[in-house]
Amino acid sequence: FREYYVNDYGTQAEKFSDCARCIYLRHFGRDTDYPEDGYPKEVVSLVVERLVNKYNDRFMIEKDGEKDVETESFKKEIIKIMVSLSNSTIIDFFKGSYPQTPPQP
Question: Which InterPro entries does this UniProt record tie to the protein (predicted)?
Fold first, then answer.
């Protein structure tokens, strides 16, 4: 999942941000359809939760009389959080697999 996301950045970033947009809008009361070919909701929800904790409704706008998301800044933040979580997961994996203990004499 993570490797594919980073290696096919453009397409996967759009797909991920579409999923995140849906969950973000739902969080603030607008019912929207989740993309059928979207990422697992559990994964996207973790990223959106971090975004909401940090920015609350900062990315919400009114568009054609409905709640919507300011797309460009939203997408940039979602991707930053996603990459940060991916990096943390990789670092945690290697810390657990290769403990940093000094060699014994």
Answer: Rossmann-like_a/b/a_fold
